[in-house]
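Margin note: ligand = zinc ion.
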Amino acid sequence: MLNIQDSHYITELCKGAELMSRYGWSERNAGNISVLLPEAEFETPREILRKFQLPFSPPELLGRVILVTGTGKYFRNIAQNPAENLGVLRVGKGELELLWGHENGGAPTSEISSHLRSHAARLRADPLHSVVCHTHPTALIAMSAVHDLSEREFSRTLWSSAGECLMFLPEGLGVLPWLPCGCDEIGLATAEKMKNYRLVIWANHGIFAAGKSLDDALGLIEIAEKAADIYLKIANFPDKRLITAAQLRQLAETCKITVKEGWLND
Ligand code: 13P
Ligand code: ZN
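Resulting structure:
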């Protein structure tokens, strides 16, 4: 059995955080990641180092152990000191029990409500779900400031800008209007969207992604961000050739993708 601190989950989280930072999505302390750990793989520490209060306790997560980034931590620095920048915590009733990390006074991300509530929602949709991550991808945020925020229209524009977006995100994206962050209200709203979507845009702020692994969640953001970047680059050209509704329907048929009724109509 491994010690938590030697696990590949920490190595992968450090790699992912560094990548998001290199993409320019993680200015200062922007972004947070949480991973549901399969406890069977670890020697879970017995001692509870500290406790953090939670305004809620998703019953699905009671007793589960999560790896999470610390609030205020810079993604570019996580790998240099995982024990200070990350924490491993057990979800209790109305509290999180710290088992490892958050050294020198650290605490879990301020977006813990969105993370825990999204985990609970995604586990109901996909038993293999394990990762939630939040970051600030520039093109998607810019697009959320100028584009219709209806989920159908937002998803359609991304699909029409890059075909792989339909292939990998056939359910489209959930979209929330701007809301104050770091509170339970945005956590509830995000989890409501996570019932049907793996990507949820927070207009004028960033994105939440869920996946079976960090690569999986990050890959979805990469695809949506690429499509948003292409859209913004071409949006103001008078003669543009986006992928048409008929072509999207053809792609869906070829790839045997099911899309929500009416979302590929002209
Ligand atoms: P934390 O540093 O608390 O994780 O917050 C970063 C962030 O992106 C808030 O939305
Ligand atoms: Zn943020």
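Residues 30, 134, 136, 181, 205-206 surround zinc ion (ligand 2) (CB under 6 Å).
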